[in-house]
Amino acid sequence: MTISFALTGPFAPFESDLDATRGEREALYKWFHRHPELALEEHQTSARIGEELEAAGFTVVPVGATGKVGILTNGEGPTVCFRADFDALPLSEETGLEYSADPALGAAHACGHDMHTAALLAASTMLAQHTDAWSGTLLALFQPGEETGAGARDMVEHGLAEKVPTPDVVLGQHVGPMIPGYGMGALAGPVCSTCVQTKITIHGTGAHGSMPEKGVDPVVIAAHVITRLQTIVSREIAPQEMGVVTVGAIHAGESPNTIPATAELSVSTRAFTTEVSDRLNSAIRRIVRAECAAAGATTEPTFEIVGGAPEFSNDEATAEQVMAAFREQFGDVVGDFGRLCGSEDFPTIANAFGAPYFYWFVGSSSDINSAPSNHSPFFAPDLQPTLDQATRAILVSVSPWLMR
């Protein structure tokens, strides 16, 4: 396999920048890694992003709780939006790296969002320094709260589409130990699953544990619900369609001799199409209501959507343009990448603008078979060449629209 890391041709000046700035870029990445913040609480991170963008000459537009968009207009031409997410996960890091986050924080960049952020800031700065190489408008969009599915929605609800220019295309990437040779992988069409996260509250009637006939036990109802929900995929979804129903948490009561008044279930669904997703969630509601009625509950259960992500389908024409540019620069390390059952709120940004979008993955480990996966407390990208490769990928990806 041929592995070509260095940018060539019209990108050669950017490769020189990568060499000259490697130390400071790595230091910036390590700062983000040491300062993880949870969804929509990323105030330090957001402030640092704003400072870096302003120093590079961008006009910085705050959007929502902590979102930031850097705008750089360089003559006539298309407008390209590149999105990076920057929230962390609620877990303690166990990588043992010298720049690891303090475990006491209870938060860690265990999904690579710090890498996404550092790479976009680096590419944005380089484009600002080489305005002779391109023309048009770059939107460097930094999105909070991807892990909860609330960040993109927060930016959209706070007027994203009205506050910044409308892009012709929206691009994004994700690092992880999934692509060999630190390459790039993607495909057109469905990429990630749609996701719906629901908190279900079952309302029973509390009673003393020694007098169960006086109450309606929501724990027993919940047990029946959990078992019955597992039949939706096996008996209501066609075998050739993908569907997942997961009960991730259950909470009811505090005492061993008391029948509680309520029980809460946290349920998530995943599918590759909105149509299947709607069927899954309709079946969940039907089953929960039926089990409550069968047990004699007098109060209807309640359903609260607490998170999720939209249907995700890469635009075919945009995919062809970016992948052709990748293949020309990076050769054999570029290829197709299979669909994921994981979810992403990236399309929410593009959909707000009505723009086509494309999203790919960048390999982050020399050994993809043994490297800890994203969301593991042991996950950490190989600092190099991942940081350089993620930065190169951004520069090459915008070239079909911006480069002269």
TrEMBL record:
<dbReference type="Pfam" id="PF07687">
    <property type="entry name" value="M20_dimer"/>
</dbReference>
<dbReference type="InterPro" id="IPR017439">
    <property type="entry name" value="Amidohydrolase"/>
</dbReference>
<dbReference type="InterPro" id="IPR002933">
    <property type="entry name" value="Peptidase_M20"/>
</dbReference>
<dbReference type="InterPro" id="IPR036264">
    <property type="entry name" value="Bact_exopeptidase_dim_dom"/>
</dbReference>
<dbReference type="Pfam" id="PF01546">
    <property type="entry name" value="Peptidase_M20"/>
</dbReference>
<protein>
    <submittedName>
        <fullName>Amidohydrolase</fullName>
    </submittedName>
</protein>
<feature type="domain" description="Peptidase M20 dimerisation">
    <location>
        <begin position="199"/>
        <end position="292"/>
    </location>
</feature>
<dbReference type="InterPro" id="IPR011650">
    <property type="entry name" value="Peptidase_M20_dimer"/>
</dbReference>
